């Protein structure tokens, strides 16, 4: 049964629950809680200690990042990622399932999913519906923290899945690839502050707020519904596509949604708006608020 899931971007709570009950969590299947919350709101690590999916480990996005960067959550080096996930018991042959505990159902898990793919790992899935629905459906939880045996993971960055500031700047003129911004409409349009940052968007970008791809229960919408969302925004999945957001997190929801539709090469602009707003010239920051004041 496990073989049927490998390569899929999503697994159901039912499938994972059966795997947990059958004792399959181990060297061939690792479960990672990739939750992150604003510190003043919730403590992800503490919540993990109190309850999590049996056999799961905590994937700390604060630790597994480029800590020398002035921008949040930038990708770590190959060596840093390999060492970090190896200590979580993940090898190149491990099927990794990621989830988070956000009230939406899924928020940070697609970022962890994309990070594994960016470093060359194909056998990685997101738990559809997240921890919220896992609990709601009555699947087992525990406070027991497992200690997985360290494994060897060899990371190789796939630059096809990553865009830099310089590449995004070049694209403003060349339009070699489409750009989809997953932030809320007000922040994209520049009519509301982006968590303290001046808001707006990259010229030529299209706005699809990431929650558009989630149902009211927090599950991923059907492939047909996702395809329709892209069509309505005139995003062509047969052509190059890059996703952006505020700090490279919800952009990964765009990559996941496109992946479910068969498009597996969506790049993420890692620095996203947090970098763009500080480095791009004013004419490259499109804002309705600025236009109205002009």
Characterization of the model:
The chain is of the alpha/beta class and 294 residues long. 33% of the residues lie in helices and 11% in strands. The chain contains twelve helices and ten strands. The protein has helices spanning 2-5, 13-21, 44-50, 78-87, 109-118, 130-136, 165-174, 185-189, 223-232, 251-260, 272-279, 288-293, and strands spanning 10-11, 29-33, 57-58, 95-99, 124-127, 162-163, 178-181, 206-207, 241-244, 267-269. Strands 1-5-4-2-3 form a five-stranded parallel beta sheet. A five-stranded parallel beta sheet has the order 6-10-9-7-8. Helix 10 (251-260) links the parallel strand 9 and strand 10. Helix 5 (109-118) packs across helix 10 (251-260). The radius of gyration is 19 Å and the shape is globular. The chain starts with a helix and ends with a helix. Residues 1-6 have low confidence and may be disordered.
